[in-house]
Amino acid sequence: MPTTGQFIRARLIEAGDKGVVIADLHKERKANWRELGLVYKTGTYHSLSRLFYFLQQLGWVEATGETEEAFAKGTTSVLLAPRTYYRITDDGLAHPEEDWMDPLSAKYPEFTGSERASKYRLPTGKPRGRPRLAPPVVKKLPKPPKVRKPKVTKPLKITLTQEEKDRLVNEGISTLRDIAKRTGRRYRAPTQEEIYEWFSEELKIKTRIVKEFAAEHGREPTKEEYEDIRWRE
Questions:
Q1: CA distances (Å), origin 142, targets 135, 147, 149
Q2: Over the stretch 221-230, which tens digit does the pLDDT of each residue have?
Q3: Least packed by Cβ within 10 Å: which of 3, 106, 146, 200?
Q4: pTM for this structure?
Q5: Degrees, nearest 5: CA angle 45-46-49
Q6: Where do the structural domains in the chain lie, given as residue ranges?
C-alpha cells in the first residue's frame, strides 16, 4: 500500500514541469483514499503542507514560480496566500520510490520511526500530532448545586407602644374618677397592679387581632387598620 509520500511523488511525476498545488492533492487524498489504497486514510491540510516543507528542505521539490488567486471555500473572497505550484526536482527523481515512503527518516536519519514517534508522543499516549509543551488540561469538577435554606418565619413580636400605654392609663384614671363621682367616694389613683393588669388585657387583645390579620393577609396590620379593628370590637 502506498504512503502519502509515494502518492505525492506519483502526482508530481504525472504533472511534470507544470507542477501540482498542495490543496488539490489534499482534496484528492481526502476524497479517494480508498481507491488510492493509501496507508493513512485521514490527514489535514496542515500535515500535507508540513510534508511538502520537509520535501523542499531535502531538495526533492521546488516551486515553479507560477501562482493563482486562492478563494475562500464557497465564496468569492480572495485569500492572502495564493495557490502555489510545485514540481519534482532532479534530486527528487534520483531518489527511488522507497525513499519517498518516509521522507522524515531521510530528513532526520538519527531517529528511527519508533524513536521519532516517542519524541512526538502526546501525554495522552497518542503518537500523532505536534508535541505539547504544557501538561494536559485537567477538567475542574462541577460545583455542587446550591441548596436553598428553608425560609424561617420569624415569630411576631407584639408589644404595646408608649402611646397605647398612655391612652390606657388615661382611660383607667377617667373611669376611676367617674366611679368616685357616681358613688360619692373619694377618688384614688390606680395602683401599679391595676395598671399592669390593664396592659396585660390590652396586649392579649392586640396579639389576637394581629395574628388573625396576619393569617388572613400574610402581613401585620398597619396602625390605622389595627385601630379600626380595635374600635369596631
A1: 21, 15, 21
A2: 888 888 888 8
A3: 146
A4: 0.46
A5: 85
A6: 4-119, 162-232
For domain 4-119, give its CATH number from 1.10.287, 1.10.10, 2.60.120, 3.40.50.
1.10.10
Could you tell me how many helices (H) and strands (E) the chain has, helices first? 9, 3
N residues, the chain: 233
pLDDT greater than 80 at residue 124: no
Could you tell me the three cell numbers for 101?
A: 515512503
Q: How far apart are CA 16 and CA 13, in angstroms?
A: 5
Is the per-residue pLDDT at 62 higher than 90?
Answer: yes
- What backbone phi and psi angles, to 5 degrees, belong to 63? -80, 140
Residue at 177: amino acid letter: R
Bigger pLDDT: 139 vs 204: 204
What is the DSSP code (8-state) at residue 139?
P
| Relative orientation angle of helices 4-15 and 45-58, to the nearest 10 degrees | 70
Q: What is the pLDDT at residue 89?
A: 92
Nearest to 226 by CA among 166, 215, 218, 208: 208
